[in-house]
Write a structure and sequence with these properties.
With 160 residues, the protein is mainly α. It has six helices and no strands. Helices cover 48% and strands 0% of the residues.
């Protein structure tokens, strides 16, 4: 064991860790939508300005020196409620019919089994139906336990 701990093993580093096979080097056809698509030029300028903001270390230190408001102050503070005039709608140029389709839920089942599963999925139950079924199951279980107890008592009496 001590020999293994003292032994020096060679390390081997390959020339290239991984290379993508040539067949998989196709150019991607994916393109993300423009970041500010659908915004007016005024809004786009405002957003670009906000994204371009930089802060110096002095600015951050000055902001850190401002004491945070107390919990009582925050509870008493009244905030403005802003309701937009119009809700966001996707620009017409970006609206496309989706090419996505989900696989068939019952793929791989034979026709009879698929029909049975569809019938089960189409069932609807009310709360009253569920309560009645639970009560019926409880009554059946109690009757089975009672019958088993009577049978055990009869067997015990016969054995004596």
């Amino acid at each position: 064991m001590k020999d293994l701990l003292k032994r020096q093993f060679d390390s081997e580093t390959p020339q290239a860790l991984y290379t993508v096979p040539q067949a998989m080097r196709e150019t991607s056809v994916f393109s993300a939508p423009e970041f500010l698509a659908g915004l007016s030029t005024e809004d786009a300028k405002r957003v670009k300005g906000l994204l371009a903001n930089t802060y110096s270390a002095e600015d951050l230190k000055a902001a850190a020196k401002v004491p945070p408001p107390s919990r009582a102050e925050l509870i008493q503070k009244k905030f403005d409620v802003v309701v937009p005039e119009t809700l966001y709608t996707v620009p017409q140029a970006m609206v496309e019919a989706s090419a996505f389709t989900a696989p068939d839920r019952l793929a791989g089942l034979n026709a009879d089994e698929a029909k049975r599963v569809k019938a089960l999925l189409a069932n609807t139950y009310s709360e009253a139906d569920l309560k009645a079924a639970a009560e019926k199951a409880a009554a059946e279980k109690a009757a089975a336990e009672k019958a088993a107890a009577e049978k055990a008592a009869a067997e015990k009496a016969a054995a004596e």
